[in-house]
Amino acid sequence: MDRIRIRGGNCLNGTIAISGAKNAALPLMIASLLTEETLTLDNLPRLADVAMLKRILGNHGVDCMVHGKRAGQNGMHGETIDLTAGAIVDTTAPYEMVSKMRASFWVIAPLIARMHQARVSLPGGCAIGTRPVDLLIDALKALGADIDIDSGYVVARAPKGLTGARIAFPKISVGATHVAVMAAALARGETVIENAAREPEIVDLALCLTGMGARIAGAGTATIHIDGVESLGGARHRVMADRIETGTYAIAATMAGGEVFLEGASPATLGTPLSVLNKVGAEITATNSGIRVRRNGNGLAAVDVTTEPFPGFPTDLQAQLMALVSRANGTSHIRETIFENRFMHVQELARLGADIHLDGQVATVTGVDRLKGAEVMATDLRASVSLVIAGLAAEGETVVNRVYHLDRGFERIEEKLRGCGAAIERLTT
Ligand code: EPZ
To answer: Angle formed by the axes of helices 22-31 and 174-184, to 10°?
Structure first.
């Protein structure tokens, strides 16, 4: 199993090309099931989760064709793929696939909307929380689907197709909003989604669906209106830049010191995290082509942060921020409100000398003068990258185990950091 070794203490200076967003790419790829025509996606990140989803879509009959590299293109450019679901040959998503990548559960939406039936394995538990799918199922029921749970599978039927409806979510859910939007796009009549998630990835999906002929208004706000259409066509869409990857490198640059340009990043998707970073001690310059981050010379300041749905502080940057403020002057309080078990990195950061106390969903982080390298264990995607960030500033050597967690959501992380002067390498065994 691969591991990553970091020798801390180097500042980061240089340019990092931001990849396409994992959390936009997954629903966009799934949307290809809504049409028999070709959906071409540009700027697709090369990630384990994307590769896994290609296999899952292939299982349903989606033809997946990767474009060859064009002249002047190198590994830093995202991938371009054609996804064509000319004929859906199987409406079952098996446990052995869905359990590996829980977002694949969302295939239930295009399958029931287009094929009027679907049998999709429940995704099961996850390291960061129980993560039920009741809101996704309720949305499909509201659109007229009959749903049963049978031997760990959600069995959905809508012999006459779906019908538009009012869906008022009791709680904000990104996945439930993606599912409701995709299903309603082919439902008869109007759907109104209230208390919808406002994440930029929802907007990116709505943009792509509109390119395919869908009629959607209000994506990015709490109320989304969808007028269903008979069928959708093909389209070409560029996956948005990854705001979580951007935030991660901005935090790494603030932690290690130096100046980094995050090429292709979009500041508008990162309002809250960038203002928090500014408070901690980073100088942030937003440009048309990206974001420049440089640590001002004043040391790191402590902050209090609560994770919230967009536009609040994203839970997917919580672990990274915790690593940063573990070296701040003073005490920070980080409250996690989205997932009930998203502090697995705390004990690993403590191995590097961080001083963090947990009380329910609140972590109290008392800044220390120095971190010292050690062997640590990755537990989930975002926790693993917080250990890399801490390792960049720790004295001596840090070795992060189980980096397969990282590969799920960060494209070529050691190359990108090494390109900015980090002493980091992958140990393959
Ligand atoms: C998406 O997960 C992201 N995943 C997550 O990123 C991200 O942390 C999360 O949104 C919140 O921003 C992808 O986009 C692939 P939710 P999702 O439904 O859709 C509860 C990463 O690191 N809930 O918004 O699964 C749920 O348990 C991943 O890239 C229900 O109770 O998140 C959680 O407490 C991790 N019932 C809360 O809502 C439901 O039916 C928010 O979850 C659905 C969710």
So the answer is: 30
pLDDT in tens, 350-390: 999 999 999 999 999 999 999 999 999 999 999 999 999 99
Of 356, 368, 366, nearest to 327 (Cα)?
Answer: 368
The count of other CB atoms within 10 Å of the CB of residue 101 is 19
Q: Enter the pTM of the model.
A: 0.97
What pLDDT does residue 1 have?
A: 85
181, 183, 186, 190: CA torsion to nearest 10: -60
Q: Which of 52, 138, 174 to probe ligand 1 with, by most ligand atoms within 8 A of CB?
A: 174
Strands 3-7 and 423-427: what pairing? antiparallel
Q: 338 CA to middle of ligand 1, Å?
A: 8
Cα 306 to Cα 338: distance, rounded to the nearest angstrom:
10
Active site residue 126: yes
Whose CA is closest to atom 16 on ligand 1?
A: 173
Per-residue pLDDT tens over the stretch 221-275: 999 999 999 999 999 999 999 999 999 999 999 999 999 999 999 999 999 999 9
DSSP 269-296: G-HHHHHHHHHHTEEEEEETTEEEEEE-
Contact residues of ligand 1, CB 6 A cut-off? 23, 26, 103, 129, 131-136, 171, 173-176, 197, 315-316, 338-339, 381-382, 409
**Residue located nearest, by CA, to atom 17 of ligand 1:** 175
Residue 77 has pLDDT above 60, yes or no: yes
How far away, in angstroms, is 62 Cα from ligand 1 center?
A: 26
Question: What does the DSSP 8-state code read for residue 419?
Answer: T
pLDDT in tens, 29-47: 999 999 999 999 999 999 9
For residues 240 and 411, what is the distance between their CA atoms, to the nearest angstrom?
15
